[in-house]
Amino acid sequence: MRYVDAVGIQIDEVRRVAALARLRLEAAEEQRLCAELGAILEAFERLQRLDTAGVEPTAHVEEFGAPLRTDEVTNLPADEALLAGAPARDGRRFRVPKIIE
After folding, report:
1. Structural domain tally of the chain?
2. In-domain check, residue 77
């Protein structure tokens, strides 16, 4: 039995996509998905018929309000200040007791 909806989604196509996704579908699920996918494609078909010649392309629906800042280093490395409180150090490294034998 081949089920074809208004947009032309066939049950064979639903079965092929289900097989690619490794899904086992019951016959009722196949019929339901055929109708749902047909409705989705019909909605896209209606959108394609809209005249969008005068509509500016947008990346966001609303204005992007977060100001962007330049990427600058604000906390310069201060090795001496960081190592000043170390109980023991070896050059630019902390010295710690050996814990692995």
Report:
1. 1
2. no
